[in-house]
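[job 0412] stage=complex_fold ligand=acetoacetyl-coenzyme A status=START
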Amino acid sequence: MKQAQKHPVRLERQGNIALIVIENPPVNALGAAVRRGIAAALNAAVAHEKTDAIIIAANGRTFPAGADIREFDMEPQEPSLGQLCSLVENASKPVIAAIHGTTLGGGLELAMASHYRIATQNTRMGLPEIHLGILPGAGGTQRLPRLIGPELALDIMLSGNQISAPIALEIGLVDQICEEDLRGEAVTYARALNAARPTSLNRSNLVDGATYMASVNARREKIKLELGANALAPLKIVDCVEAALLLPIDGGLDLERAAFEDCLASRESAGLRHAFFAERAAAKFPEAAEVKPAQVDRVAIVGGGLMGSGIAIAALQSGFAVTLVEQGESGVNEALERIGEFYERSIAKGRLSEAQGAAALTHLQLTNKLDTLNEADLIIEAVAEDFDLKASMLAEIGAVAKAGAVIATNTSYLDLDALAGSTGRPSDTIGLHFFAPAQVNKLVEVGVHDAASAQSVVTGLGFVKALGKVAVRARVSGGFGAGYIGNAILTAYRQAADIMLEDGATPPQIDGAMRAFGFQLGPYQVADMSGLDIAYARRQSTPRDGNSRYVEIADNMVAQGWLGQKTNRGYYIYTDGHRHGVPNGDVLKMIAEYRAQKGITPRKFSDRDIRDRILLAIVNAGARLLGEGVAARPSDIDTVMIHGFGYPRGRGGPMMDADATTPSIIASRMSVLAHEDANIWGAAPVLTMLAQERQRFADLNKA
Ligand code: CAA
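[job 0412] stage=complex_fold status=DONE, emitting structure tokens
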């Protein structure tokens, strides 16, 4: 966040109307100075005998987008946002909130405490606190049900979704939508008012107590069923909405304050807030200080397989013109079918209208002619993961791409330096490592190698942001994990699991332990889903690390043709198209025989042993990536793990988790495990350094 403005609130006058104007870029967050400024301006405006009405408005891109989240870990300062909202609501003269941009969280609460609300046509409103593991803590849980009833209020607060101004008008959240000049129309609106209208006195949505309570109770049961009885913030939101009916406003506000503080103190909220800032920190590339992104209008993708088609869809959905190049007519047709299927499904599920689907497809050009690439500003190579194939394709791309175009390869583990060299234009070339399914997964690692120019890196970053995706910079050097953060960690994760498999654990047991930790799927379920042949091909093409044990179980399965879901048989057996298989007894038998051949006496692993070993392996791999400069900061690793591999977001990521245990305890636990696999559990220098200096990974985030 930029340095807070010294005087972020101004009081202006237009005749008998007082205007309180907030200016605290970039999103007018309601930090302490802003709250003090609004309170002082309000008191002055009310005290002025010539004031008939007061408008609260904001300069810049938005009405406040919420409380200042960074202040949540600091000593509270008065007035709190709740106190400010009460002050606004209790003002003796009418207060109008003139809102625009993304009026979120505390910003919407301030608007709801105002007596009237006028919004621009494209204002978006919402209470996204649930995404931070908290609830609206400045009266939102009490005022929203009073304004729009319990059902819609619960929808908004439990989903965290934004609603548009026309919908807000329809449901009674705003009073008027302005056509052009928000400030001017707000002044005209204010001149016609003659009385304050406190939201807390509005009982129209509280009169039918039985229906109200039925909504509350049904929602409470639904949450318990779907999320469990410990779903803190969702259940507290329901309690607060119940209190809005049962208690006078002051009691409701007290209950809300206590609930907010309980949520704020939770580990989950700390994790979710860390994840929020980690994503934004990850997108800050040093190259962006040097250059601005070049304009990208047309994107070309070479290769229309699952990955290439997914990238094409993501680009179309974000309004880019897309050229997709495939080999021969059949390749073109298959890619068209894949993309067409996505649009059909999206239309059938109501996510897109037919018109939107048709409009997106008009921007797609499918071709088998490579020379069309010379129209593109950014070209992404997404052919199969084979070095020779990619290198020869990149050489052809380098020959036809127009001057200034950025060339990206979607390789996930091949040598990026060498691939960039094969284009003949290494400075124009970067890595863009999308995660499957690329039309859904929000993560893209931007691979930066020695010869890449700042311009191509920043243009690649700009493209990823324009897709609405989360960008993480990986300084790819051909080292550990062949560079990318996600792959290096995944390799360590799988290796730790395979070692336990060899020593006595079973795939279902390991998967179950990781699901209990919070992953959606365990490592062997993921292996079955992605196909054992993919990981096999990779193992074959990567040199073995002499410090690591080589576990051959997966190779033996490939030899049997048990490739996972695609052959209906992998670590699990899949029948009748079911995506959740049952444990494959043949694999368990094969593992037992394999251990016997190697003279390994199986031993028992508790779920805790499994989880600890895997998490230590992940953290250690993360520390290595930091030491090698592949990852710039620990929170980048957290972002990759959350978005790329489904690490539970409420935990903030593995590096945040490691800090909770402390690096020194982690290092000492690993010294016990290092003899089992020195590569996986031999402490990385960064971890040892942190342990010795009694520091945490968070200290490296600040650097
Ligand atoms: N507090 C502090 N900083 C915030 C912030 C907030 N509420 N919202 C955004 N920022 C910061 C971001 O960290 C970022 O800072 P840097 O430039 O230093 O990285 C900057 O504002 C711009 O944010 P984005 O990069 O996210 O910009 P965007 O245009 O893509 O998105 C946004 C804008 C939709 C407002 C998005 O930032 C967002 O969703 N913010 C969070 C909104 C939110 O959760 N509000 C509720 C807060 S909790 C609350 O209000 C509780 C209460 O009741 C008391």
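The longest helix spans residues 328-348.
[job 0412] exit 0
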